[in-house]
Every structure is written in C-alpha cells, then in structure tokens.
Fold this sequence. Notes:
Layout: H1 5-32, H2 45-73, H3 76-108, H4 116-136, H5 141-168, H6 193-237
Helix pairs in contact: 1-6, 2-3, 2-5, 2-6, 3-4, 3-5, 3-6, 4-5
Amino acid sequence: xxxxxxxxxxxxxxxxxxxxxxxxxxxxxxxxxxxxxxxxxxxxxxxxxxxxxxxxxxxxxxxxxxxxxxxxxxxxxxxxxxxxxxxxxxxxxxxxxxxxxxxxxxxxxxxxxxxxxxxxxxxxxxxxxxxxxxxxxxxxxxxxxxxxxxxxxxxxxxxxxxxxxxxxxxxxxxxxxxxxxxxxxxxxxxxxxxxxxxxxxxxxxxxxxxxxxxxxxxxxxxxxxxxxxxxxxxxxxx
Length: 238
C-alpha cells in the first residue's frame, strides 16, 4: 500500500505534537498543580489514571464503530479499525488498572479491593482480551472479521457498565471525579481551578495520543496485509 506524502507528514506532525503534549502534561502533573489537600501527592496519579481511561474509551468506541461499519459494508478497512481500537483500548485500560492500584495503596491502604468499579474494569479488560483470542482461533479471514465485528459491538456494553457503575451502586468506595453520584465515595478530592486545568489538559493529551497510536497501528496492519498478499502472489507464480 502506498501512502500519500501529505498523510505521512500529518501523522509525523501529530506524533511530534503528542510527544510534546505528553511532556507538558507530566510537567503540569508534577510542578504546575500542587498536592491536593486530602490526598496529598497521591492525587497526582489521577491525571494519568483518568487520561488513560479516556484513551481506552476512545479505543473501544472505535472498535464498536469499526465493527458496525464492517457488518454494513464488508470493507476490511473497518475490521482493521476495530482491531486497532481493541488493541489500543486494552493497553490504556491496563494503564488505568495499574495506576488505580498505585493510587489505592496510599489512599485505601491496599493494592486491590473487589469494589464494584474495580471489578467492572477488570471484566471490561478480560472481555476485550477475549476478542483477541477469538480472532486468533478463527482461520477463515471473512469469518474472523464477521465474528470479531459482532463481538466488538456487544463488548462495548462492558465499557458503559464500567462508567455508570459508580453512579448506581451506593456501596462503591471509588471516587467520582466528574458529575453527580448516589454514592459517598472514599478518596474524594476538591477540584480547584489548577486541578481542573491539569485534568482537562491530560484528557486532551491522552486523546491525541490515542488517535496517534491508532493511526500508526492501522498503517502497520495495512503494511502487513500488503506484504502477506505479495507473498501469496509470489508463491502462486512459482
């Protein structure tokens, strides 16, 4: 597959911008915003924690979109988008889990507890890990794409369940950083102007990083498909 020079330049610029944004975000996390009154230094983890969850949400949302468009058009490019979204979302959701554990240790005095939110995030991660296992277990390309598309659409329910669980379960101890909640979570913190600015900048940064990583992954997948097709033609000509 031949890529246009213009798109390549755009991707390079986006990659450079993502790297710069990430450095600035880390500087804001550690130096611009001070320690939070209730949580102290541990609260700084939340900026990466929430940013990575946004990245996972974008990735899994793209997987659902790609799955739906593939079932509608049968165009393999949408299957590539879906696969890329799952892989990217899995990476960011793993970061979400790890940073959450790092935050929980000083705040809750434990690395892990089977809180409804933590449990739902784990289920979400396992659901999308099973997507990759499903693809690996099917050899026929068209059948693989069709089954994967359906799975990607169904699996997004685990994402929305993870988002709403802390708003409908009063027994959760996971804090709610944005929006109202029925629960009385442990580990809440006051959103000062600097905290809001830093949080929004991190969310924007992780959004840009997610799109950039997915674009690179799509190009890599397309390149692999091109190489595979050329190998098949060479073998057929021998």
